[in-house]
Amino acid sequence: ESFFFLVKYALLQKRLSQLEEAEGGFDQFTRSYKTFGVQRQPDNSLLFKEWAPAAEALFLTGDFNEWNKFSHPYTKKEYGKWELILPPKHDKSPAVDHRTKLKVVVHTAEGDRLYRISPWAKYVTREEKSVIYDWVHWDPPEQYTQIHPRPKKPTSLRIYEAHVGIASPEGKVASYDNFTTNVLPRIKELGYNCIQLMAIMEHAYYASFGYQITSFFAASSRYGTPEELKRLIDVAHSMGIMVLLDVVHSHASKNTEDGLNRFDGSDSCFFHSPPRGEHSLWDSRLFNYSSWEVLRFLLSNLRWWMEEYRFDGFRFDGVTSMLYHHHGIGTGFSGDYSEYFGLQVDEDSLVYLMLANHILHFLYPDCITVAEDVSGMPALCRRVEEGGLGFDYRLAMAIPDKWIQILKEFKDEDWDMGNIVFTLTNRRYGEKCIAYAESHDQALVGDKTLAFWLMDKEMYSNMSSLIPMSPVIDRGIQLHKMIRLLTHGLGGEGYLNFIGNEFGHPEWLDFPREGNNQSYHYARRQFNLVDMDHLRYRQLYAFDRDMNWTEDKYGWLAAPPAFVSAKHEGDKVVVFDRANVLFIFNFHPTQSFQGYRVGVEVPGKYKIKLDSDETLYGGHGRLDHNTEFFTEEQPYNGRSYSMLVNIPPRFTFIPREAGVWDPVGW
């Protein structure tokens, strides 16, 4: 295996030296968005440049020439490049006005005439009655200037995964401005220090959740303008919050008129020819990562989002599909090393990901990259110099699957504590994981949020705090908190929550489409539920907030993995310590424990810091927070000291060592 890592690094070095030789280094190469597409020159002339190797001829048409298809031909250059210069108008203004439409006309060898959007288009819009997106020239007289510096990379990453379009209670596509004004302050209050923004890269089909990209350089116009997105990121930075882009470089939409597919009339261009260039499950096109111009396009795309919008990094979607020729289809991964080394590994995309991570981390030392990989590829999150792929974090995708499985298949008394702990702690040493109880995947139609798995239809009638809790609501509210805290404390080096799930959002997610009469009913987040004093959603929201701020204070995500001193099957108790904080969970539905002995490593006096049974969080208030716990010199469960605690049923709390920290509560 070590030979495999050396070979990977050698391939990366070879690519970098080729870039140095042919392009004068990766800095220039990855700024190709400054030379391709349309560029305004200092004299206000416009330079148009495209790569269309299979085309016979290229023309530019649009509002500027009254849609004349032949008056403005591109000139053919070497390596499949085409260029056109439009001199300024008589009044010295650019020949193409801001917000006017353009198209590239492609003539093929077969004699076809195709109408295309530039792959480098920075803004595309769709008129209400239309199906196809239009390329719109974006060159505003007043551009938004970002003034707030990027936040430093946090040691503990707490991610709020969000989708701009669903981020309001109203039945419509919500805007960038709505997110800036109404959602950013909530994220700040909740204690998240990073936002992962989905569905920003332009996608013609809203219900694809942003994963079928049509224009890679265009921020989606359905939420507003590029300037409004820049403002959103700037305001997030002013709050000390990083913003990651959910980047989709694993595949592209099959759309031809407003996508990349068959841009030059051929079935290849940016992609492999079929069958290699098609994903059978996603019905989409697959990039040819060995192509010089595809590397130019994708690496420049990453730089564009970092430079133009000042994103702070990326969550790379579909990494498993990229890493293997089989794309993970019909393949289970057991963790056996033979699954990760061999002919099934796609060397070209492996080198592309190494290149992307190397360049991003070299140019932006605080940049964060996260990989969505279900396979468990070794060294995914090790530095490229070590033969790794260079990601900072991987998503711990087995954890949410485990929680859904438990809630679907097991009675409370049959929960397997050892299996839960194993799933939460089973990760490669030295590779950072982001743990989460649920993400957007678990909320999609066909599944539902954890809160809805727990409480289902009772959420419609029994969430009022003015009436006593029904058994279903009581169980749901307690487990919702406990599942989150256990995942937060034990599951990784980062934590992720999907928008709305922090307060137990009911139901599921479903975008407007033919199958639901174009309804927005399930494509929104009902923040109004949190703002109503008498509903219990507030209690879950408060717990999520205090859980994050408790982590902020003690830093368990940045600490080495926890030491689990108890996972008792009969008692349904889990005890572990991490970052000098002791976590105690009792998952038993009915059994409370008096004088329960728990092991601790640090001697001294302990007090309660976070208590899921507090009435503020919808608990029963069974613990006295003035109680002090004193350790005894009695080793227990592999810890040097121990102490006795009382634990109510189905509840969790964190005592903390008073000799180490100031005893400030909330």
UniProtKB/TrEMBL annotation:
EC number of this enzyme:
2.4.1.18
Q: Name any one Pfam family assigned in the record.
A: CBM_48
Q: Which is one GO molecular function term here?
A: 1,4-alpha-glucan branching enzyme activity
What SMART domains does the database record attribute to this sequence? Aamy
Which InterPro entries does the UniProt record give? A-amylase/branching_C, Branching_enzy, GH, GH13_cat_dom, Glyco_hydro_13_N, Glyco_hydro_b, Ig-like_fold, Ig_E-set
Q: Which GO terms describe its cellular component?
A: cytoplasm
Q: Which reaction does it catalyse?
A: Transfers a segment of a (1->4)-alpha-D-glucan chain to a primary hydroxy group in a similar glucan chain
What UniProt keywords are attached to this protein's entry? Glycosyltransferase, Transferase
Top-level enzyme category: transferase
Name the GO terms of the biological process aspect. Answer: glycogen biosynthetic process; nervous system development
Tell me which residues make up the Glycosyl hydrolase family 13 catalytic domain.
154-536
Show the active-site residues.
D317 (nucleophile), E372 (proton donor)
* Pathway linked to the protein: Glycan biosynthesis
Recorded hits in Gene3D superfamilies, A to Z, give:
Glycosidases (3.20.20.80), Golgi alpha-mannosidase II (2.60.40.1180), Immunoglobulins (2.60.40.10)
What family does this chain come from, according to its entry?
A: Belongs to the glycosyl hydrolase 13 family. GlgB subfamily.
Supply the name of the protein: 1,4-alpha-glucan branching enzyme
Q: Look up and give the organism this protein is from.
A: Salarias fasciatus
What gene name is given for the protein in this entry? gbe1b
